[in-house]
Amino acid sequence: MITDQKPFAVNPNILEMEYAVRGPIPQRAAELEKQGRKIIPCHIGNPQALGQVPMTYLRQVLSLVEEPSKIARERQLKALFEENPSSNLREEDFISEEILGISQDILTKSVTGMGAYTASKGHYFIREAIAEFINQRDDFDPRNGINADPEKIFLTSGASQGVKFVVDLLIAKGNDGIMIPIPQYPLYSASIKKVGGTQVNYYPDEEQGWVFNRSILEDAYTKAGKDGVNVKGIVVINPGNPTGAVLDEQSMVDLIEFAQEHQLMIIADEVYQENVYQGKFLSFAKGLGTGTVPLVSLHSISKGFLGECGHRGGYLELRNPPKIENSTMDFTDLLNKQASVSLCSSTPGQVLTYLMVKPPTENSKSYQRYLEEKQKVLNDLHEKAVMIREAFSEMDGVECFGETGALYLFPRLNVLPEGTTDFDYCMALLEKTGLCTVNGSGFGQKEGTHHLRIAFLPPKELLKQVLPEWIKFHNQYVSK
Predict the structure, then answer these.
(1) CATH class of the region 12-50+369-478
(2) CA 19 to chain centre
């Protein structure tokens, strides 16, 4: 006799998790797209989905290491070309010897090729290259004792996996808390929720460009303590997501001193470090220097100018690993245990992470092309951000604070019809114009404020078409 299957009881934390970036507005956008509507997906930092062209260097090398026989074949074709000078082919039609050599070197160092598991932390030669990249980026001298250590670097399937590794370890009890900036990227709130921890909000000053000071941090910490929360870590996202703001040096100093005083681990999400369009990026590793605060830094191939979201590559670097209570192990050992359970991160992601930190040698043909492609992507991104910010000036009651960084703008909607929210606004904007954004409440915001996040990724020609429609929609919507 067939009966209805009994419903399963599941983890209530997962049941209650929210992730607005893939939430109701993008889901509605998908429905509209199925109906034949033209949708402009600005709800997520997914550059290649909006036409950003992959970097030639990365894709050439990846194709060769995935199919090594192409290396020999390319050389054979090049030899035939050189023997036949009357051919219509040109030198540029062949993959350069430099790229062939890099690809062969990767295969030699990986030993087992692309289809095999690697060490849990990832290939050592790649972790070694990441350490060299960090030392060069931050002007660290290996003789001064603060250089990066390949053994404290873990290759991850995107930075998201690294975040989950750390959050899973820090949350031991329900009252264990992690401080996160509001607004925040919902990966953090979701990861804390999933393991049953406590989210502790701190609020950067929007009108001062999303910076913060000791007072802001202490207020959040003190309130959490009164609520019985045991704060163990603090997240900082720089450049910011969703705000796009670039953190000033004083805010970094204040956060490091705050973490030192309260013995917290800093989780520094630095995946947008290449997306600083004015000025220079300053890492938390650089800011920490010889300090003893435990620090986790995260980077990814998904952002910057690479936009390789689908290949899922990145790394986690750990400094000053704390000892583990009632154990002889430290935090590095437990991260390695977690990585071991996952076996290893994606090998294409590992290779692309290697290429991110080890670009072509300067003055080579490959380097010149690489530099041109890099500058084009970054210049285009900045120009598109400027276009959108200029459009805000024509929208009633819209303000956007902070220096432009990352891939996003987070304008404040000061005027909305009574009884409506930023969710209502974003849904109506989607229905009317096809522009898919995310409501500010999906990231968290100060009570009584309304925002939206838009990724400035669409081609400029498309923005020129949709921005006037957005301006018209906005001014009509708020005048109701």
Answers:
(1) alpha beta
(2) 15
Give Cβ neighbours of residue 285 (< 8 Å, ≥ 6 apart).
Answer: 134, 138, 148, 268, 295, 297, 317, 319
Record the pTM.
Answer: 0.91
Residues 167 and 160: beta-carbon distance below 8 Å = no
CATH code linked to domain 124-357: 3.40.640.10
Q: Residue 258 and residue 218: Cα distance in Å, rounded?
A: 8
pLDDT in tens, 139-169: 898 777 789 999 999 999 989 889 998 999 9
Give the H or E element holding residue 387.
helix 365-392
37-42: long-range pairs with CB below 8 Å, 24+ = 37/434, 38/434, 39/430, 39/434, 39/436, 40/433, 40/434, 40/435, 40/436, 40/458, 40/462, 40/466, 41/436, 42/435, 42/436, 42/437, 42/454, 42/455, 42/456, 42/457, 42/458
Per-domain boundaries in the chain: 12-50+369-478, 61-112, 124-357
**Segment (H or E) for 328:** none
The amino acid at 70? K
Which residues, other chains included, contact 47 with Cβ-Cβ below 8 Å and sequence gap of 6+? Answer: 307, 309, 377, 407, 457
480 Cβ neighbours under 8 A, 6+ residues apart: 417
Token pair 């191939």 is found at: 301
Kindly state the DSSP code that residue 4 receives in the 8-state scheme. P
* pLDDT per position as a tens digit, 270-296: 999 999 998 889 999 999 998 899 999
pLDDT tens digit string along 228-286? 999 999 999 999 999 999 999 999 999 999 999 999 999 999 999 999 998 889 999 99
Question: Which pair of tokens denotes residue 14?
Answer: 């997962």
